[in-house]
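quick one, 147 residues, struct below
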Amino acid sequence: MAESIGSTFAIATGEPTTVDQAGYEALTFVEVGNVATIGATGDTHADITPPPDLKTGRQLHFTGASDGGEVAITIHTEDFADTGQDAVRAANGMRANYSFQITDPDGNVEYSFGRVVSYRKIEKSATSYEGCEFTLRINSAQTGVEA
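---
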């Protein structure tokens, strides 16, 4: 089982020309520094439930539309000269898709594209750090590349 320490998040402007490893690798990604957390990734599926079968009285479930959902990311902002953090701030609220790359310490990579929204400063308290949080709204299937 791989640990999360050493994972990275990067962003690139626009979508790949092909939604596969080659398409994503043709983009220029910039790593976002000081990432503290990356939320859960991957599709969920809508539940389609037609009326129960009269003979058995059993409720059936079918797989519906796929949804990449939202991925919450939290970053430390001690380094305001971080190019990746600047790219995220610039992407926030834009009406365009951006591409995302999450790399695990074992070399596995997840690619997707979508929107950056809700960039805001995190809670201030006696035990918190200076940081920000933002959300990725995923508009593509996830493309995985195993090391």
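The first helix runs from residue 21 to 25.
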